[in-house]
Amino acid sequence: MGLTFCIVDDDPATRAMLENIIQESRLGEVTGTARGGEEGARIIMETRPDVVLIDWLMPDQDGLETIVQLKRQGFNGKYVMISQIENQEMVGEAYQSGIEFFIRKPINRIEVESVLSRVSEHSEIRQYLNELKSSLSKLDTLNLLSADRQATASVKPRSVSEVVRPIYMNLGIVGEAGCNDITAIMELLLENGQSGPFPPLKQLYEGVAAGYKSTPREIDKEAKAIEQRIRRTVTTALTHLASIGLTDYGNPKFEHYAPLYFDFEDIRAKMKEIDEERDDGKSKVSIKKFLQVLYLEALDQMQSA
C-alpha cells in the first residue's frame, strides 16, 4: 500500500502537477490539497497524511510557520519543502524545522519522483523496524556462542565483512576500532538466524566479549569496552554525515544514510554544533537503531547475493 500525501501550495498549476506525478508514478494517493498554510493545516489534521508537500512562500502563512503549527498540534508526518530558495542559511533553517527533503521550483518530474521514492523507501524501512520490534515471536534462547548454531550457520564471517565494509566507507568509519565489534555482532546475528525481537544491547556486547575472554569478570569488562568503542564509532558516523549535510543537503550519501541510521533531530543538532564550531561531547545517538538498520541492510544484501 502506497503513502498518502497532502499538497499545500498557493499555485494551482503546481498542485495539479504534483498530484498528477504522484498518481501517474503510483507513488501513493493524494488525500488533500490546499492553497495556503492555514487551510493546509486544517486539512492535514483532518486527513493525517503520511507525507506533506508544502510550499515555503505563501500569502497567508508560510510553510515553516505551518510546520511549526502542525508539530504543536501533534502531527508527526513527513515534510517535503517546495521552494525556489537557494540561500544555504534559509535551507538550513528549513531542515532544522523538521523537513526531510527539498523539491525545487520550477517542478521537475524526475526530481519529484526521485525525492518521493526516497521518502517512501525510508518509510518502508521504518515500518519494517517497527514490525521487527512488535510482531515477531520471542526468542526462546539466544545463545550467541552455541556450537550447534555455528555448525548450521549458512553465513561465513568473511562474507559479512564484505557486505558491511562498503556501508562503513559511506558512513566514514572505516578504520574505527568499533567496526570490528559491530561486524562481530552482525556475524552473530546472521549466523544465529535472528528471527525474533532485536536482542538487548548488553546481550550482544557480552556475546562478542565471550569470544575474546573466558571468565565472567573478563567478559563483563570487555563488554563495557565494546560498548564504548561502538558508541565512539557510531558518533563518528553521525559527525561525518552531519558534515556532508552542512555543505551539501542534496548529497546522495547524506540523503540516504542520515535519516536511515539516525533520528533526524540528532542529525540537525550535530549539524548546528558543527556550524557553530563547538563540540560539547554530548552527541546523542541510538546505537540500537544503528545496529538494527545495519543488520537489515546486511541481511537483505546477503539474501539477494
Automatic annotation (TrEMBL):
Domain Response regulatory: 4-120
Key words, A-Z: Phosphoprotein
One Pfam family of this chain: YcbB
Keyword tRNA processing among UniProt keywords: no
Domain of life, source organism: Bacteria
Residue numbers bearing the 4-aspartylphosphate modification: 55
PANTHER family in alphabetical order: TRANSCRIPTIONAL REGULATORY PROTEIN GLNL (PTHR43228:SF8), TWO-COMPONENT RESPONSE REGULATOR (PTHR43228)
UniProt name for this protein: Two-component system response regulator YcbB
Organism: Paenibacillus hunanensis
Lineage, top ranks: Bacteria, Bacillati, Bacillota, Bacilli, Bacillales
